[in-house]
């Protein structure tokens, strides 16, 4: 068994609640893409119903190992056809509610994985 220390040189989600998260020391109250390699990109959607295929094509362009999709206050799945750009690049996608996605992102980023969290923050 190999032990590795958690990495603390990546940006982490330090707090969260309904409609907001803290990335490191910054409070964010809009949907966002956060990456272990420093990406922090506003994500133009405020409700699950606002999502479109272009949102997932944008995620594929970030060339991550895995994308954690936080679908809001409850777990909802995008149509499979929207995931084609990710599948074409062999990028995995895991869907969960946003608060679970925050926790999962921190674990994977702390392990040194090239992970992206696409977080839907509903008002």
Walk me through this protein's architecture.
It is a single chain. This protein is 22% helix and 28% strand. The chain is of the alpha/beta class and 123 residues long. A five-stranded mixed beta sheet has the order 5-4-8-6-7, covered by helices on one side. A hairpin with a 2-residue loop joins strand 2 and strand 3. The N terminus is likely disordered.
Low-confidence stretches: 1-5
Total DSSP E strands: 8
Mean pLDDT: 92
The name of the CATH architecture is 3-Layer(aba) Sandwich
- Label the structural class: alpha/beta
State the separation between the terminal residues, measured CA to CA.
44 Å
Query: Which geometry do the CA atoms define?
Result: globular
CATH superfamily, by name, is MTH938-like
Radius of gyration: 14 Å
Q: Note the run of SSEs as H and E.
A: EEEEEHEHEHE
Number of domains: 1
Q: Widest sheet: strand order? A: 5-4-8-6-7
CATH class: Alpha Beta
How much helicity do the residues have?
10-25%
Number of contiguous helices: 3
Beta-strand portion reads 25-35%
| Most strands sheet | 5 strands, mixed
């Amino acid at each position: 068994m190999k032990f590795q220390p958690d990495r603390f040189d990546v940006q982490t989600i330090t707090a969260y609640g309904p409609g907001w998260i803290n990335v490191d020391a910054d409070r964010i109250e809009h949907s966002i893409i956060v990456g272990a390699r420093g990406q922090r990109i506003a994500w133009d959607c405020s409700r699950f119903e606002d999502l479109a295929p272009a949102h997932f094509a944008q995620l594929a362009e970030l060339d991550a190992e895995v994308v954690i999709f936080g679908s809001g206050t409850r777990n909802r799945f995008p149509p499979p056809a929207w995931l084609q750009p990710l599948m074409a690049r062999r990028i995995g996608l895991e869907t969960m509610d946003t608060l679970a996605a925050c926790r999962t992102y921190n674990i994977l980023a702390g392990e040194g994985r090239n992970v992206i969290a696409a977080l839907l923050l509903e008002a």
